[in-house]
Description:
Low-confidence stretches: none
Oligomer: single chain
Strand content: under 5%
Mean pLDDT: 91
Amino acid sequence: MPAQFQLALFGALPAILAMAYVDRLDAKRPEPQRTLRLVALAGALSGFVVVAVGALLRPLGPEVGTYAAALYDAFIVAAGPEEAAKLACVLIVAWRRPEFDERMDGIVYGARAGLGFALVENVVYLLIVPHSLGEFLSLFVARALLAVPGHAAWGAILGYFAARRRFDGKGPGMLGGYLLAVLLHGLYDASLFAVPVAIAHGHTAWALGIWGVPVFAYAPPLLVILGSVLAMRMFAARAVAADDHALP
């Protein structure tokens, strides 16, 4: 097995650790491992569909190298299809199963779908993007701290609102949760995709960093990820409380 491929496989580790973290949020009444694995597998396989959809959508967008193109890629090519794929995984694999019987289940299965997708995406990025060990480490850390938690949180958020409407008849429901996930995901991607455009237009401050890390460029997406993860934790606490209250 080539050394580069072996290194790329380490990209699965952050997603696996994040799955364990989400499972701990549901420690009171955990979901069957088989169903969790099936949802994660569906999320992983959905990545191939998302790539195909993105390939069809990208040529329809604005001129490359513009802010409009960055927004189009962020919201239409990336966030929209990826969050739709996570929602589809939950609906197809878990939604009608008897174990999907609590509000917290929406968070758990939504996060699993997102992390299955993130696992494959991470490995692929680490396989094709870095050209040196330094680039590999920089990309590994950035994606472990940003992209992986983001995919978990956005999937959890759309799952939470779908489950809340199902069990309580309240909230924005499946569509509202999807749109909120797309908004957060799109803001994250747009803040990254716009950096090269800004630098090309002479705003070189975005390239400044510390020890080779572009701190200014990573600050906006980091704020989006922190907000997304905090929202996931808040919704998880609300879901567990509501599930406890509903017990006979």
